[in-house]
């Protein structure tokens, strides 16, 4: 994506490529469009390397080893042995149209590892289900907290 594009063009690119609904004729809602616009406005000034603490001021370069550690943490899940020790009740909420991973597969895997985990997939919602379908997510949260023992 070119940094010389204006915010409207960048927003359109981000929305079209990242947060378009998989179903015909729609998007996930105003939150995804607002997020795309905010991301577009940040692309000119935001430095991921600085915010992650992997930029070395002395050498004026990215510390590759620190960067690899960050990537490993981002892409690798917690050890299964640690997740199996999780004894508390939990609620995991996904949007049906999650774009980063398959909510069905991830939810099923998490539920196998943590038996007291309740997994919910919100129909018609994207990555930010709480913003796309707040009434549905709020209902799930209320139900979870009211029925815990």
Please outline the helices and strands.
Blueprint: H1 7-18, H2 30-42, H3 48-51, E1 55-56, E2 61-62, H4 64-75, H5 80-84, E3 90-95, H6 103-113, E4 117-122, H7 129-132, H8 134-146
Helix pairs in contact: 1-2
What does it look like?
Strands 1-2 form a two-stranded antiparallel sheet. It folds into three domains: 1-45, no CATH class; 48-76, no CATH class; 77-149, Rossmann fold (3-Layer(aba) Sandwich), CATH 3.40.50.1820. With 149 residues, it is mainly α. The chain contains eight helices and four strands, in the order H-H-H-E-E-H-H-E-H-E-H-H.
Secondary-structure element pattern, one letter each: HHHEEHHEHEHH
Determine the CATH topology of the largest domain: Rossmann fold
Q: Assign the CATH class of the largest domain.
A: Alpha Beta
Helix content: 40-55%
Radius of gyration: 19 Å
Task: Report strand %.
Answer: 5-15%
User: How many separate structural domains?
Assistant: 3
**Coarse morphology:** flat
- SS content category: mainly alpha
How would you sum up this structure in a few lines?
50% of the residues lie in helices and 11% in strands. The protein contains eight helices and four strands. It starts with 6 loop residues before the first helix and ends with a helix.
Keywords:
Rossmann fold, flat, two-stranded parallel ribbon, about 150 residues, mainly alpha
């Amino acid at each position: 994506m070119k940094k010389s594009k204006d915010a409207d063009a960048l927003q359109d690119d981000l929305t079209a490529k990242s947060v378009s609904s998989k179903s015909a004729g729609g998007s996930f809602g105003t939150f995804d469009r607002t997020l795309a616009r905010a991301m577009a406005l940040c692309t000119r000034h935001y430095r991921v390397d600085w915010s992650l603490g992997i930029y070395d001021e002395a050498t004026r370069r990215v510390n590759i080893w620190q960067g690899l550690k960050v990537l490993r943490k981002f892409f690798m899940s917690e050890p299964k042995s640690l997740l199996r020790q999780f004894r508390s009740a939990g609620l995991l909420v996904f949007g049906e149209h999650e774009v980063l991973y398959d909510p069905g597969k991830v939810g099923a895997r998490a539920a196998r590892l943590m038996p007291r985990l309740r997994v919910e997939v919100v129909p018609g919602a994207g990555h930010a289900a709480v913003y796309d379908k707040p009434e549905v997510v709020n209902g799930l949260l209320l139900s979870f907290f009211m029925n815990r023992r």
